[in-house]
Amino acid sequence: MAERLTESQIDEALSSLNATLAADEQWQRDGDKITKTFTFKSFIRAFGWMSQIAIWAEKLKHHPEWFNVYNRVEVALTTHDVDGLSELDFSLAEKMEKFR
Amino acid sequence: MAERLTESQIDEALSSLNATLAADEQWQRDGDKITKTFTFKSFIRAFGWMSQIAIWAEKLKHHPEWFNVYNRVEVALTTHDVDGLSELDFSLAEKMEKFR
Predict the structure, then answer these.
(1) Domain span at residue A90?
(2) Which Pfam families does the UniProt record give (chains A, B) (predicted)?
(3) Interchain contact, B43 vs A57, CB within 8 Å
């Protein structure tokens, strides 16, 4: 069962997630969510990435909110069960970075 | 090249698209878009359907705007090239119904 992260845990997890990312590639905190817009070279690449992440989401039993139009995917991650952010959000975000 | 449909063409195409759909399954007109929310039994089914539609979208060279969270997919179709609706939107909507 996921546990709600504290503010300091969120700060730490977000810093860690963003540590190796360029300034314009950073995840943002938006209340109970972390968000990022991913841009790819084509729809095929965008949806191919989504397909990889979809399988990981199902494995993690944790699913994204995501909006896609052509080569762009806007992602928001949150954990409804805890009304906030949990480690699952950061695990899924790490997978999204790994496979992008 | 897609052509912008006239109001009466849109009315006709939308009626045809909705003809066999139950009242709570109808596509809606929203300005230059047609929209519908699809609900599935699970994330696997929702994303499986999206994967089929993604391939059709690429074949049609016409891509949806879509938002997914878990078993729900909110779709908006429009043709940016014509600043309105074209036959491509209705072709893609028909595919979405066929494969749902």
Answers:
(1) 28-99
(2) Pterin_4a
(3) yes
